[in-house]
Amino acid sequence: MGKMCCQRGAIALFLPPMPNNHQKNKPVHVIGGGLAGCEAAWALATAEIPVILHEMRPNKGTPAHQGDGLAELVCSNSFRSDDFTANAVGVLHEEMRKAGSLVMHAAKATEVPAGGALAVDRDAFSGFITNAISENPLIEVMRKEITDPLSLDAENIIIATGPLTSDGLSQNIRALTGAEHMAFFDAIAPIVHKDSIDFSKAWFQSRYDKGDGDDYINLPMSKEQYDNFINDLINGEKVSFKEWEENTPYFEGCLPIEVMAARGPQTLSYGPMKPVGLTNPHDPTVKPHAIVQLRQDNKLGTLWNMVGFQTKLTYGEQKRIFKSIPGLESAEFARLGGLHRNTFIKSPELLDETLRLKTNPKIRFAGQITGCEGYVESSAMGIMAGRFCVREIMGLAPTTPPPTTAMGALLGHVTGGAEAETFQPMNINFGLFPPPSETRPNGRALKGRERKAAMASRALKDFDAWLASDL
To answer: Which class for 457: exposed (0-12), middle (13-18), buried (19 or more C-beta within 10 A)?
Structure first.
């Protein structure tokens, strides 16, 4: 299978692909122009297999998307930690780079400062991917909603419609799978204009001075201010649920801030608002009770995302409550927070090890609809779906990344590692990896960062071996 040049900062996107007469292949239809769909289409086109990429926007919108670009980021602009030496997310980043990820190329090209995290200018990121896909001669983008995958004249279909799958397509997927979808809510954090922040109270600093040491804007709170803020969050007016949404659970990794506040008065001060690792230069002798952090959201540095402030408060309440935060009294919001439904299938009982629907193997699923959670996890599933489809078209036996790798661990969780009846979306984490075989000199098991470093090193070594065998 052909592969892209994946060195960090590389300009050339491709290395010479494996010879393949693509004219003999019918196009693979990929439904959904998000991260997973674009990665799947890119992997197929890299192997000289033609693709038709279906995206319903702008003809039909969603509750969360604002534009019509491919791979639009609707929640945070962060891909989380880029540390591939001891962080599972960073390991996944590095595996994706090695596999020729379009998302990782785009992230490198549109990166903004974020300490030890990888964050992007969201508009530039979407533009990069939209241009790359549109200019690829083997990918045809069709702007039309697909509600019935079986209506397509296709031998191979990849459904990568993500958490905002349209009602029409959802109904047909239910019919295909014979199983009910499960749903939960993802909440979106507000974005603030930097020039509306009061820097007589705010300051630049990364927690423990990571990254460049000043990648976040920090807003301190006294105990009294914090207590009043928590009270406002709990009692503030929330967006009303529709009847069919009332019993839909939240994803634990993306809880609305007011839901976290309701779990206990100190939940936030020990979570996204913890004051550790930071010193207020305006008053270094006083330790804040809590600190709000904002992360850069675009390359110009004019827009800043409120970290951990995803919310289902009404717009009016967001303005009232968030402007009570010291430094945000005159805040102007480029975007207020919001809430959207997330849909996924019961993958452990529906999909085989190469993401094919067991009852109809011409159909594969990829991305968040499989029950993974997060931008890079979704993208990785798209890469794998594309590569698995390539091997099948070429008549090669399937190979899957080992469970010791980040991709393999994620794939294993989605396709059988999780309990089907209690299956819930999952971010990549070292809890999905087999434990390391190494021990300390005294024979005891590795712990902490030492254990994570061992799993990270093993993952990248095993991933290299899998890539070499998958060519």
So the answer is: middle
CB 164 within 8 A of CB 338: no
Tell me if the domain spanning 22-181+345-470 has CATH number 3.50.50.60.
yes
- For the structural domain made of 187-337, what CATH number should be given? 2.40.30.260
What is d(CA 69, CA 127) in angstroms, rounded to the nearest whole number?
A: 7
| This prediction's pTM | 0.80
Q: What percent of the chain lies above the pLDDT cut of 70?
A: 90
User: Do 282 and 219 meet the contact criterion of CB atoms below 8 Å apart?
Assistant: no
Asked if the domains 22-181+345-470 and 187-337 are classified in one and the same CATH topology, the answer is no
> Whats the size of the chain, residue-wise?
471
pLDDT tens for 367-420 read 999 989 899 999 999 999 999 999 999 999 999 999 999 999 999 999 988 777
CA atoms of 21 and 30, how far apart (whole Å) = 20
Is 232 within 8 Å of 373 (Cβ atoms)? no
Segment 405-462, tens digit of pLDDT: 999 999 999 998 877 777 878 889 998 998 898 888 887 888 889 999 999 999 999 9
In whole angstroms, give the CA distance from residue 393 to residue 385.
12
Number of Cβ within a 10 Å radius of residue 52: 19
For the chain, the domains span 22-181+345-470, 187-337
